[in-house]
Amino acid sequence: MRFYILSIFIIMSISAQAQDKVVLVIHGGAGTILKKNMTEEKEAAYEAKLREALQAGYDALTAGKTSVQAVQSAIHVMEDSPLFNAGKGAVYTNDETQEMDASIMRGSDKQAGAVAGVSTIKNPIDAAIAVMEKSEHVMLAGKGAEEFAEKQRVTIVDSSYFKSDVRLKQLKRVQDHEKSVLDHDGDDRGEFDESENEFNVDYIEDKKFGTVGAVALDSAGNLAAGTSTGGMTNKRYHRIGDSPIIGAGTYANELVGVSCTGHGEFFIRNVVAYDVAALMEYSEMTIEEATQRVIEKQTEMGGKGGLIALDKDGNVSLPFNTAGMYRGYITENGKITIEIYDHQD
Ligand code: ASP
């Protein structure tokens, strides 16, 4: 891919170490999220939703629920909002449909569940949890996953529930852009925009991202991680990204939980979520060291995106190599931190 573009990105991350134990961390997708392209209203709407998601997960934890239930509560809020590329706000495929993917993993016993390419499940994270808890499988896809979910009383909706004018417009823009790229003899770099310090084409490509994810640590010390997405705008051939793939988009063990967002193909090839856990387990890296190393590797390869990670002691790390990532976390005493842009923006 375009290494020369990516080499100019600085890896950005925030971390909150031990003194303030974090119990829940969430993301709402990474991409070219720049303050100058945001209205105050839009920014406030994202912040309010991220806050609501954190609060919902936190309320579950303080009510004594498990980390899986906290992840589910937080992801529900984002799946039910049209702001994020998951559930209600899922992006369009090339065929003008929605195909959603989701996964969940529980760290204590390494149980996991996932669904891929579903179009009628209101909250795909619920179906992933049902696969984990009520089947002997890890991943179900398409019609079979929908049939299983219905049997487990997961809420099914007509696929028209996911339609939206905003997302349809986004699809048209991406399609127009891709057509013009093809028309221009393979020169896909676009114009260099000095003010954005990147090629305009990336602006379009990054619009394809926007997955949601959550990692929680419950009062019993158990971690869980979950991810839910509509995938990438204009995807075709029933393409499936990293989000429902355990080890790529989602992973949890007794040490750490991870949820990723970004260009899924790269996250699959680098087995990103598991790589963080492996570096912590085998190389005894801290969460900060492991996540930085993994994102550096992604950047070197040309894979854009970010991840959220939470370890068993409540340390959090949220690195990304895009301009921004919707993200936030809540500590044991209920203090919420929300960020959208990198620290320099
Ligand atoms: N990782 C997702 C995918 O490739 C997209 C995203 O994170 O926005 O399907």
Radius of gyration: 18 Å
User: Which sequence of SSEs, written as H and E, runs from N to C?
Assistant: HEEHHEEHEHHEEHEEEEHHHEEEE
Task: Tell me which CATH architecture applies here.
Answer: 4-Layer Sandwich
Q: Name the poorly predicted regions.
A: 1-10, 183-206
Summary, kept brief:
This protein has 345 residues and is α+β, with helices and mostly antiparallel strands.
Task: Kindly describe this structure.
This protein is 34% helix and 23% strand. By secondary structure, it is an alpha+beta fold. The protein has a single domain, classed as Glutamine Phosphoribosylpyrophosphate, subunit 1, domain 1 (4-Layer Sandwich), CATH 3.60.20. The strands form 3 sheets. It has an 8-stranded mixed beta sheet with strand order 5-4-3-9-8-2-14-15. It has a 5-stranded antiparallel beta sheet with strand order 1-13-12-11-10. The longest helix has 23 residues. The two termini are 26 Å apart. The N terminus is likely disordered. The site of aspartic acid has 14 residues, from strand 11.
Features:
345 residues; alpha+beta; Glutamine Phosphoribosylpyrophosphate, subunit 1, domain 1; eight-stranded mixed sheet; five-stranded antiparallel sheet; 15 strands; disordered N terminus
Topology of this structure?
Blueprint: H1 3-6, E1 15-16, E2 22-31, H2 40-62, H3 67-79, E3 100-106, E4 111-118, H4 124-134, E5 139-141, H5 142-151, H6 165-183, E6 192-193, E7 198-199, H7 200-206, E8 212-217, E9 223-229, E10 250-252, E11 256-262, H8 264-269, H9 272-282, H10 287-301, E12 305-311, E13 316-317, E14 324-331, E15 336-341
Parallel strand pairs: 4-5
Antiparallel strand pairs: 1-13, 2-8, 2-14, 3-4, 3-9, 6-7, 8-9, 10-11, 11-12, 12-13, 14-15
Helix pairs in contact: 2-3, 3-4, 4-5, 9-10
The structure holds aspartic acid.
